[in-house]
Structure formats: structure tokens, C-alpha cells
Design a protein that fits this description.
The chain is an alpha/beta fold and 450 residues long. 36% of the residues lie in helices and 21% in strands. It is built from 15 helices and 19 strands. The chain is globular and about 55 Å long. Bound molecules: S-adenosylmethionine (SAM) and iron/sulfur cluster (SF4).
Length: 450
């Protein structure tokens, strides 16, 4: 890494899966606001659904997700029943004139902990409650350790079209340090089962910056991952936030690669994947040239939501399940992360929203600017402001903030035209932060940029 770029790598910046970011969510937004926003959904508006399943078989020490270990199936089965009740509540809060589902995503936690019957029952309820549009994408996150041939068939029968497998790293000595033993043969077997069942689109998650991991380990993992020909890969830098996720204290800090090593690991993944013909998508995804995400990059339709980069172009994402977040045109809402509060609210016939944020002033313009920049890697500030009915100099406050990033070769500025350079792609979160009028350098709230 160039010495001049170190300060950007060390900066604690938001990931911008939303704007304003979750740090700005507050409890002044409640069910009444949400119901109002839902009732204003336009005629024919396509919808996206995110369903959160907050249970896992075993805790990975690095995990930053909202989940807990389900020691018995009872907790999971009960959750499935309550989720079905929440689907009913949400479906009846929507106006009849919406356009049906374009995208559905089961995330977690590990949705594959659900029994095949419970999964099928939830899917049937979704279809009944919201209706599917043609070519609906139906994705599920998969822990390969929970897979078997029957489950792959059950997922396919329920309509799943894309499976996203948590791979992380294939080296045993790294897997031991993260409490996740998952041999290559297990992942290969899962992929084979899924493809044989007819689920053709396969995503992998990889992580760099894990304890005990070296650049050579990352290269080995990436090459093994490639041998299974995934359609997409998400490549995350390990976010170490033990003050927020207690179990990360199980990770020995001295085992963690330093900043230079992390940077070299991230570069290694990119080199291996790009040499194999994969297209870099945003700052942390790669897609096979034939995959819809690579086409979205070329066509300028790539978007960003809580799952990271997405081909989903809907403006209304509705969240179901404890802790899930919804993104609507007027703002964001979040369900209670507490299982008890989530459940009791649903049983009282209410939508379990506990916080959120309403977009005000320039928020919508800045949200679109950040999302465009992080997806297309370029933006014309003047044209963008005019498209939002504002004077073309409205976003000029960004220019002086970008000056040092431009000097350091991360961004090119020509008038109001901003282009992120190849070197700058890794630091796009730092560049996005220049548009953020809510963000303060709040140590301990966000993970480092690299
Ligand atoms: C919900 S999990 C995926 C499905 C399933 N639970 C699994 O792990 O196989 C979401 C992904 O987030 C990533 N992840 C979790 N904690 C992380 C952290 N602290 N830093 C970076 N990535 C993380 C992992 O790559 C993981 O696959
Ligand atoms: S990474 Fe996935 S399997 Fe591991 S604890 Fe987190 S959500 Fe569960």
C-alpha cells in the first residue's frame, strides 16, 4: 500500500449499505410511520423482501451478523410460526395495488437451519401474501455445514433460484482459529447438490484479514473457490468489532494480519479472480462475465442495499424477522432485534418496527449520489443535483473534501465530474463519506476501510 493511502485504510468509515446509515436510526420512527409509508406505495410498485433467520448451529468467532446458537429446533420452529404471522400482518398493511415481488432474499444467521417443511410453509405464505412477478429472483444464504441432498431439492422445490454459500476460507489452520471447520469437499458437495437440484446461480462469501491467514492462504482459498466456478463472489474484509460482538473476543488479536497484510490479501483475491476473467463489482464483489451482476455493471443498473451490491432495482425493500431493515422511498425502518419484543409485538397485531430514519432535506439526493458512486464509480455532481430539482452547485461542498483524495490518486475531478480511479475503488467508502452530512469520525462505531 502506498504510504499516502494508509490514513484512508485506517479511517473508520460506514459501509453505506444505507444513507443515512444505521447509526442515525432513532426510536422516533415507529409503526405509525411505517404503515403510512406502506400505504403510499405507488400503483404497480415492485417489491423486494428480506427475511432474517437469526439462528446458527455453531458460532463462528468472527461473526458480525445478528444471530445466536439454536440448541434445539423448538426455538427455530417457533420463530417460523411467528414469521408467518408477521408475513400476514405486513401483507395486509400494503395497498392491493402494489406490483408484487421482484426479489426475495433469505438471510441470517443460517436460513438452512429451518426444516424443509417450515421453509416451504414460509415460502408458500410469501407467495400468497405478496405474489411473484415474472423472473423473480429468490435467493438464500447457505451454511454448507447444514446441507444435504434432500435440503437442496427442498430449496429448489420452494422456488430458490440463487444460493449464496458461506465459504470464508479453505485452510484448516484458519478454520480452527475461527471455530468453523468446513473442508473443501463439504463445500464442493453442497454446490453439486444445489446444481443437481436445478439451482444454477451460486455465490460464495470469502473473508480476508482472518486470524492466522496469510496472502498465500488467501490465494489458496480463492483458487479452490474458483475450481467450483461460482457465478459471484463477495469478498469481505474481516470486521473486528469485539466491543459490539462479544464472541469476537475469542479471536486472538495478535493472530490478526496487519493493515499492509490485509491490503495485500484483498489485492491477491482480486488478482486471482480477475486473471480468471471475473469482473470487479464495486469494492467487494466479483462476478462471472455471464452473470447478471456483471451485466448490471456494464448496463449501469448495479445497486446497493443491505446485502451489499445487488441487481435488484426496486425502490422498496421490506424486512421481515427480528432485526431486519426495510428501505423505502421516504426512509428506513428496523424491526426489534430482541426476539421477545419482536414476537410479542406481532402477537399484539402490530408491525414490530422499533427505529428508523426519515429522509429529510438533501438526504435523498445524497443517498442516490453515494449509491451511484459506489456502483458506477463515477458521478456528475451538477447533473445529479439538477435531476433532484436542485441548483447544479448544491453538492459542491464535496469538492474541497475530495481534494486530498484526488491528490493521492484515488479520484479524478474534472469540473463537477468525479471518477474513481482503479486505485480508489478499494477506498470508495472514504470517498462516499465526503457526501455524508450526518457522519462524524465516530471511533468505535464503524470498522476500518480496509
Ligand atoms: C449470514 S452469513 C452467510 C450464511 C451463513 N450464516 C454462513 O456463514 O455460511 C453472512 C456473511 O457475512 C460475512 N461475515 C460475517 N461476519 C463478518 C465479519 N465480522 N467481517 C466480515 N464479514 C463477515 C461472512 O462472509 C458470511 O458468509
Ligand atoms: S458466519 Fe454465518 S454461520 Fe457463522 S455465526 Fe455468522 S451467521 Fe452463523
Amino acid at each position: 500500500m502506498k504510504p499516502a493511502h494508509k490514513k484512508y485504510a485506517l479511517a473508520e468509515v460506514p459501509r453505506y449499505t444505507s444513507y443515512p446509515t444505521a447509526v442515525q436510526f432513532h426510536d422516533g420512527i415507529d409503526e405509525t410511520d411505517y404503515r403510512q409509508w406502506l400505504s403510499n406505495i405507488a400503483v404497480g410498485e415492485p417489491l423486494s423482501l428480506y427475511l432474517h433467520i437469526p439462528f446458527c448451529q455453531k458460532m463462528c468467532w468472527y461473526c458480525g451478523c445478528h444471530t445466536s446458537v439454536a440448541h434445539t429446533y423448538d426455538r427455530v420452529g417457533l420463530y417460523a410460526q411467528d414469521l408467518i404471522a408477521e408475513i400476514d400482518l405486513l401483507a395486509s398493511a400494503l395497498p392491493d395495488h402494489h406490483g408484487g415481488l421482484a426479489h426475495v432474499h433469505f438471510g441470517g444467521g443460517s436460513p438452512t437451519l429451518l426444516s424443509d417443511d417450515d421453509f416451504a410453509a414460509i415460502c408458500a405464505k410469501i407467495m400468497m401474501g405478496f405474489g411473484a412477478r415474472d423472473n423473480m429472483e429468490f435467493a438464500v444464504e447457505i451454511d454448507p455445514r447444514t446441507m444435504n441432498a434432500q435440503k437442496a431439492k427442498a430449496l429448489a422445490n420452494a422456488g430458490i433460484t440463487r444460493a449464496s454459500l458461506g465459504v470464508q476460507d479453505f485452510n484448516t489452520h484458519v478454520q480452527e482459529k475461527i471455530n468453523r471447520i468446513q473442508p473443501f469437499s463439504m463445500v464442493k458437495q453442497s454446490v453439486d447438490w444445489l446444481r443437481s437440484a436445478g439451482i444454477a446461480a451460486i455465490n460464495f462469501d470469502l473473508i480476508y484479514g482472518l486470524p492466522g491467514q496469510s496472502v498465500a492462504d488467501v490465494r489458496h482459498s480463492t483458487e479452490l473457490a474458483l475450481s467450483l466456478s461460482p457465478d459471484r463472489l463477495a469478498v469481505f474484509g474481516y470486521a473486528h468489532v469485539p466491543w459490539f460482538k462479544k464472541h469476537q473476543e475469542m479471536i486472538v488479536t495478535s493472530d490478526l494480519p496487519g493493515m499492509e497484510e490485509r491490503f495485500a490479501e484483498a489485492k491477491m483475491v482480486g488478482t486471482v479472480l480477475e486473471d480468471a476473467g471475473y469482473i470487479a463489482v464495486g469494492f467487494d464483489h466479483y462476478a462471472h462475465a455471464d452473470d447478471d451482476m456483471a451485466k448490471a455493471v456494464k448496463g449501469g443498473t448495479l445497486r446497493r442495499n443491505f446485502q451489499g451490491y445487488t441487481t435488484d432495482t426496486t425502490d422498496t425493500l421490506l424486512g421481515l424477522g427480528a432485526s431486519s431493515i426495510g428501505a423505502l422511498e421516504p426512509g428506513y425502518v428496523q424491526n426489534s432485534p430482541s426476539l421477545d419484543q419482536w414476537r410479542n409485538t406481532i402477537h399484539a397485531g402490530k408491525l414490530p418496527v422499533v427505529r428508523g430514519v426519515k429522509l429529510e432535506g438533501e438526504d435523498a439526493m445524497r443517498r442516490a449520489a453515494i449509491m451511484t458512486l459506489m456502483s458506477a464509480m463515477m458521478l456528475d455532481l451538477g447533473t445529479h443535483a439538477l435531476a433532484f430539482g436542485a441548483p447544479e452547485n448544491t453538492l459542491d461542498d464535496v469538492l474541497p473534501k475530495l481534494a486530498s483524495l484526488a491528490e493521492d490518486g484515488l479520484v479524478r475531478i474534472a469540473g463537477r465530474q468525479i471518477t474513481i480511479t482503479d486505485e480508489g475503488r478499494t477506498f470508495v467508502r472514504n470517498i462516499a463519506a465526503c457526501f455524508d452530512t450526518h457522519w462524524q469520525a465516530s471511533a468505535g462505531r464503524h470498522s476500518r476501510a480496509v
